[in-house]
Amino acid sequence: MKEVACTECSSSDCFIRTCGDDQLMQFVSNVKRTSFYKKKQYVVFEGDQVLGLFFILSGRIKVVSSGISGKTQVVRLTKSGDIIGHRGLGGETYPISAITMEDSNICFVDNDSIYEAFMSSPKLTFDLMMYYSKELRNSEAKIKNIAQMSVREKVVDSLLYSERLYRDDNNSIQIDRQDLADLAGINTEQLSRVLSELKKEGILAITKNEITINDRNQLVDIVQPFNISY
User: How confident is the model at residue 208 (pLDDT cuts 50, 70, 90)?
Assistant: First the structure.
């Protein structure tokens, strides 16, 4: 792909653009490499050597972790402007895999360049620390909530999480059913049953390729006891 300078990047939410100054953006522009990934292509393999950080220019990526018997758990979903691979920094291998959910363009910056950027930009280092802190809080809350939620509540929580990231102008979400089930930590049969119930109640409208939320307030009420901000 043709490389685009960070100052001209179409992703206004990119971590480098929001946290860096002109000098840092110029440095990253000179060292980054932008690549195109097809839908369902691996960006990172769990257990691979840590080579650097990935910044999503455009597209959607799911971050997954393998479990017992090869079952995968969707750890989080990402969009344009997010980072992939940061949990591997300081370690030898990536603790997660990252797989594209649609055709995506992704920028890569190698370890040495990232280290140099951190050393030259205290703001970048501080903002990444805050990014880690927020992720840790969210992960801890998710672990606690998943242990206490019913299957219905897990599905609703995953729907609202996906809606916050991927909602279009029609309040619709395009997400694979298996990905949604993996995100909720349930099987597809359980997911289908709950989605059917919510459809019958008029809360959702469902087609083959997308889920439309008709009544967001009812969904929020279902998970209200867990005090989650959507």
Answer: confident
